[in-house]
């Protein structure tokens, strides 16, 4: 049903490859918006499911006490040790890889690429430059109840989200309004985007 997303996922991987190729060593070592990861480690995370067979995750999973997020973080850091050019080349070579994460599927993969792209771009002062159609799909995914691991549903419950540049909205309650790229980040818990948002729901979202 979601196979129409595969060309969009491929386009995002190629776009991320171009971005990685454009960055200096200092930019690659800049802290991203994603936890304790650097920009380079975010790139490693995006590449890892394309170049590492699933069985290699098992020892990491055991060593992490069967905590998938910890195992994935360790795998991302391992892959990130590769030269940046190799990371970019892997994204291009495997742009059409049909990797489908469990539970969240291809909508989750498309959203992961777009969110992590902003995790890289925003700290570096680079424009979001997101495709509106792909962004709408990810916003629908994040507010549609399927985004396990992406959205804390208690944090966003009872709020209405409106993208001022897309003609998009979802939810009921006090409004959180702003550019779609900022909503993408706010829905996934990136507090840096709150400054770009307005509406009576922003204070509630910030307090949760």
What does this structure look like?
- The chain is mainly alpha-helical.
- The chain is built from 11 helices and 3 strands.
- The chain has a 3-stranded mixed sheet with strand order 2-1-3.
- Helix 3 crosses helix 5, helix 3 packs across helix 6 and helix 7 crosses helix 8.
- The protein starts with 5 loop residues before the first helix and ends with a helix.
Structure keywords:
208 residues; mainly alpha; 3-stranded mixed beta sheet; 3 strands
Query: What structural class do helix, strand and pairing data support?
Result: mainly alpha
Number of helices: 11
Give the C-alpha Rg.
17 Å
Oligomer type: single chain
Brief overview, please?
With 208 residues, the protein is mainly α. It has helices spanning 6-22, 25-28, 39-51, 57-63, 68-79, 84-93, 105-121, 132-143, 153-156, 180-187, 202-207, and strands spanning 160-163, 168-170, 175-178.
């Amino acid at each position: 049903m979601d196979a129409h997303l595969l060309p969009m996922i491929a386009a995002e991987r190629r776009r991320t490859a171009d971005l990685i190729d454009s960055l200096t060593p200092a930019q690659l070592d800049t802290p991203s918006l994603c936890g304790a990861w650097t920009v380079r480690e975010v790139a490693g995370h995006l590449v890892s499911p394309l170049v590492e067979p699933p069985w290699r995750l098992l020892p990491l999973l055991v060593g992490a006490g069967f905590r998938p997020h910890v195992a994935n973080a360790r795998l991302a850091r391992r892959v990130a040790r590769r030269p940046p050019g190799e990371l970019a080349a892997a994204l291009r070579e495997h742009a059409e890889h049909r990797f489908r994460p469990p539970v969240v599927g291809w909508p989750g993969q498309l959203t992961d690429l777009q969110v992590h792209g902003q995790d890289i771009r925003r700290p570096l002062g680079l424009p979001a430059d997101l495709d509106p159609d792909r962004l709408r799909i990810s916003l629908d995914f994040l507010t549609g109840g399927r985004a396990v691991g992406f959205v804390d549903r208690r944090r966003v419950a009872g709020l209405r989200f409106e993208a001022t540049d897309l003609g998009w909205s979802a939810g009921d309650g006090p409004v959180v309004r702003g550019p779609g790229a900022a909503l993408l980040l706010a829905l996934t818990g990136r507090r840096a985007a709150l400054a770009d948002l307005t509406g009576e729901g922003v204070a509630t979202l910030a307090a949760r």
